[in-house]
Structures are given as C-alpha cells and as structure tokens.
C-alpha cells in the first residue's frame, strides 16, 4: 500500500512540477493530476502488495512523460539519468513494463543519436548516457523475451476486432474503476483527449525541428501505453464484454491522459490547453464519487473475507486447511499459499502473532490435495493443476497434458477414484469441450527411462456427444501382482482436439 501511494503521489507531483515549469506558474487546473493518480478506483492495487509490478510501469512512464514535457531537450546530466533510469526499470517490472519499454527505448536511442550529431562536449556526454541506457534497455527486453517460460494455458485473441475491443476497455480504465461503470462514455472521454493530442504531437515532430525531441518523446510515451493496451487485448481475451476491465490495470493507461495534457501545454495553443485540462478535471471530479464508492465496497468485501479467515485461524485450522478454504480469495495458487501460512505460523507473524498454535499435524493430505486419499509425489504443470468445485464436489483440476505421479505403496493391489469433465465444459455455448483422454500408466521400479510405461487404463470422455460420458466416472484399476514403482495419471487431447474448455479432473484417488 505504501509503495502504491508513494509511486502514484510521485507521478502526480512530477506532473504538477512539469506543468508549472511549462507555463511558469501553478494553476488550479493542475488538480487533474492528483485526481488522475490518487483515487480509490485503484483499489485492487492499494490492497494487494504483489500488484507493485503493475503500478510501477504506469508511474515510471508518467514520470518520463513529465520530464520530457518540461523542456524541448534533455540537456542536464541529472535529467538524463532520471529518464534513463525510469526506462531501464520498466523491463524489470514484468510483462507490463516490458510491453512499454520498446517505444521508450527507441526514443532514447533516437534522442541520443540526435544529441551526438549536434556536437558539443556537454551535449555529447548526455547523448552518451541516453545511448547507453537505450542499449541496456534493449538488452533487458531481449533477455526477458528469451528467458520467458511461457505457459501451456496461453490463450490469444481470436480476431482483430476482439483485440481492439479489449484494448479499448483497458484504455477506458485511465479514468479509474468508474471507466467500466460509465462505459462507453469513458472511452469517448479518453479517445477525445488522446487522439487530437497524438495528431498534434505527430505534426509538431514533423514540422518543428526545435521541438522534435519533446514531441517524439511524448508520442513515444503514448505509444508505450498503446503497446501495453494492444498486449492486453491480444493476450487477455477471456471475460467477454468485461475483458480488459481488470481494476489492477488502472495505473497502466493513466499516462495517456497525462500525456495528452502535456502535449497541449507544451506544444499547443494555451487556450486549447486550458480547455482540455479543464474538461479532464471536470470528468475526473465527476467520476470521483464512483471511484470512491467502488473502493469502499471492495474494502468491505475484503474485510469480511479477512474476518472469516481469522476466525478459521483462531479455530486452530492447519495451514493446509486454511489454504484449501481461502486460497481462491487470497492467493492465485493454493500450494505456495499453504507454504506461506506454515512459515508465518512458525515465525508467529501476521495472523499468528497472538495465541498458542499447535504444531502442524500431517495427516497424509496436503493443502491442494485434500480431496485425494493418496497423495501425489509430484504434479505437472504445478501452476495449472489445482483444486476447485465441480458438480458440488471438491476435485483436482488437471487440464490436458497434465500428469499426477503417485508412488505405489507396498501391498497395494488396485487404485480407485473418480474422474470426469466439469459440467461447464459441455453446457456452455462457447468453448465447449471436444473430449479428453484419461490414462493411467505404471512405470516399474528400476525401469529404464527410455522404456515405455505399462498402460493400465485408458478412456476417452466426449460429454458433448455422449451423455454417458457426463458427470462423475468411477475409476478402478487393478495393479499387477507385487507391483512396485510409480503410477502416472495423465489427461490428453487426441490429435486435432482443441484443449480450450477441457476442464478435466481427478478426485477421491486411493490405493487398496
């Protein structure tokens, strides 16, 4: 929370100081900057510490825009280092920063080359700093892309129209969470501010040599935000008409409006600049109650969830049980959440500061696997195999190409359990499943890695076309006499099948 508030306050302060330097005085209209950055419509980032990586890119881009707008060129070494450091920090902020960094790195490169050609020792020294920062930023971007692990569950936008629609909704969040409430008016406000400013900047960059660096810099700041908007539109197609309206994105498009104000203040008519800044001030002030109400509602919901969690803590539930009950509202993944709770309990921190807590009891079941009697040695991919509800029962979701590996206990002669495909995979109109193959294989103890495992069970479920494949399916697999080694439970798609919509699961697995 402190990092969020300090970063946004710094972005607002930098913007106010830049506006004052441009017009040589402070104006009441500069209230537009605190209203843009410091409202409760950014509530998700305010209460979630791991969202720092999303807050910082927008603030860094805004600081760059403010410094670029303050003067026609970046002449001092201090300003050059500030701008270069902000651009260098962007690729270190994860995907949100990497998507914005190329446009700003390009501007650093072009500005550095222009400064180097202009001659003069002082100009060349600042140009050298710009060129060095540009080279480092490009290196960071390349390293990030080359070492990015990717995900098997990546879904891209199906067409250009969907990409543009999601990007437009993302951009409307520059007005805060209220951007969704007043949609599509919010899009009209943002587009009405940004598009004329972009045309102004492009025309100045082409026609006025003395202002080319400043105009190109502000234009690249807008292009950086457009880049992240396009990335969200292309890579976040889920959610239908709400795709792009994730409140955690609020600070990312905010530099669009700040850049629009700077464009008119620095390069446009003073009268038009006052009208643009005044119109945005009125819009943000009018939306302030909606943003505030959204923040209060979110805070009340989080308070109720926290109270429920604390009651379970005081009741003495284990870390695994706490994780199983509360991970969906407190953490994106149950396994690390259970581990974190165990560490907090051991260190007597956070909710475990007071009271006497019993030692963790290991009853053979671990946090995300409470629905299984037999506990897996490992799962793959660990980020995608996770618990949830299906048909009112606790199950372990295992999307196609996932594996659960179990050690065969001594004396076991069979494996029993339940498997199936969640009802929403074949009852919804879009993204219905076209089938999942469930496989159980045995790898004997000492078996060479290159040898194929022994197939013990295989069944293809196609609930969309076969009613008998719907619901919970019983699993009973006989094991060879005296079997020792591991069992591998896999879910697969046959060639030509689409994995989207395949909510496959296992549950109640046990050895007899």
Question: Compute the gyration radius: what is it?
Answer: 28 Å
Strand content: 5-15%
Secondary-structure element series: HHHHHHHHHHHHHHHEEEEEHEEEEE
Calculate the mean pLDDT score and round it.
86
Number of strands: 10
For the terminal residues, how far apart are their CA atoms?
51 Å
Number of helices: 16
Helix content: 40-55%
How would the global form be characterised? elongated
Oligomer: single chain
Strand order in the sheet with the most strands: 1-4-9-6-7
Low-confidence stretches: 359-366
What is this structure, in a nutshell?
Helix content is 52%, strand content 13%.
Structure report:
With 512 residues, the protein is of the alpha+beta class. It is 52% helix and 13% strand. The chain contains 16 helices and 10 strands. A 5-stranded antiparallel sheet has the order 1-4-9-6-7, with no helix packed on it. Strands 2-3-10-5-8 form a 5-stranded antiparallel sheet. Strand 2 and strand 3 form a beta hairpin. It is elongated. About 2% of the residues have low confidence.
Topology:
Layout: H1 2-23, H2 32-37, H3 43-47, H4 52-70, H5 77-89, H6 95-117, H7 121-147, H8 160-172, H9 178-181, H10 185-207, H11 212-235, H12 254-267, H13 270-314, H14 319-330, H15 334-347, E1 378-380, E2 386-390, E3 393-397, E4 402-407, E5 414-421, H16 424-427, E6 436-444, E7 454-461, E8 472-478, E9 485-492, E10 504-511
Antiparallel strand pairs: 1-4, 2-3, 3-10, 4-9, 5-8, 5-10, 6-7, 6-9
């Amino acid at each position: 929370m402190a990092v969020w508030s300090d970063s946004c306050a710094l972005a607002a302060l930098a913007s106010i100081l830049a506006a004052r330097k441009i017009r040589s005085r402070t104006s009441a209209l500069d209230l537009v900057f605190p209203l843009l950055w410091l409202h409760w419509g950014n509530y998700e980032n305010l209460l979630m510490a791991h969202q720092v990586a999303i807050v910082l890119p927008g603030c860094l881009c805004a600081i760059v825009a403010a410094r670029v707008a303050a003067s026609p060129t970046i002449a001092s070494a201090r300003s050059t280092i500030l701008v270069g450091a902000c651009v260098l920090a962007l690729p270190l902020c994860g995907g949100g920063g990497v998507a914005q960094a190329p446009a700003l790195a390009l501007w650093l490169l072009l500005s550095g080359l222009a400064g180097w050609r202009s001659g003069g020792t002082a100009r060349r020294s600042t140009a050298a700093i710009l060129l060095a920062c540009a080279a480092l930023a490009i290196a960071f971007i390349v390293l990030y892309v080359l070492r990015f692990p990717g995900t098997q569950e990546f879904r891209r936008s199906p067409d250009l129209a969907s990409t543009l629609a999601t990007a437009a909704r993302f951009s409307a969040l520059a007005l805060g969470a209220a951007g969704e409430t007043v949609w599509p008016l919010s899009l009209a406000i943002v587009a009405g501010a940004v598009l004329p400013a972009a045309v102004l900047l492009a025309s100045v960059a082409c026609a006025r040599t003395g202002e080319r660096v400043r105009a190109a810099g502000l234009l690249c700041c807008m292009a950086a935000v457009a880049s992240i908007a396009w990335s969200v539109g292309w890579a976040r197609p889920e959610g239908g008409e709400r795709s792009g309206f994730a409140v955690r994105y609020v600070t990312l498009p905010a530099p669009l409006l700040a850049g629009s104000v700077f464009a008119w203040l620095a390069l446009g008519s003073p009268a038009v600049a006052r009208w643009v800044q005044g119109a945005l001030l009125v819009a943000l002030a009018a939306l302030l109650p909606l943003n505030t109400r959204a923040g209060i509602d979110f805070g009340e919901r989080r308070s109720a969830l926290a109270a429920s969690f604390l009651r379970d803590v005081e009741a003495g539930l284990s870390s695994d049980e706490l994780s199983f009950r509360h991970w969906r509202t407190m953490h994106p993944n149950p396994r690390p959440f259970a581990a974190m709770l165990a560490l907090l309990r051991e260190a007597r921190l956070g909710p475990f500061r007071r009271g006497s807590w019993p030692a963790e009891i290991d009853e053979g079941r671990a946090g995300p696997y409470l629905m299984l009697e037999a506990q897996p040695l490992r799962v793959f991919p660990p980020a995608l195999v996770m618990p949830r509800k299906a048909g009112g029962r606790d199950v372990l979701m295992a999307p196609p190409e996932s594996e659960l590996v179990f050690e065969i206990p001594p004396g076991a002669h069979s494996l029993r359990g339940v498997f199936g495909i969640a009802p929403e995979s074949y009852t919804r109109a879009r993204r219905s499943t076209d089938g999942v193959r469930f496989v159980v294989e045995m790898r004997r103890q000492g078996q060479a890695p290159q040898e194929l495992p022994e197939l013990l069970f295989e069944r293809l479920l196609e609930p969309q076309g076969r009613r008998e494949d719907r619901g919970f399916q019983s699993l009973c697999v006989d094991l060879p006499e005296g079997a020792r080694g591991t069992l591998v439970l896999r879910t697969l798609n046959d060639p030509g099948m689409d994995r989207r919509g395949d909510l496959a699961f296992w549950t109640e697995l046990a050895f007899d």
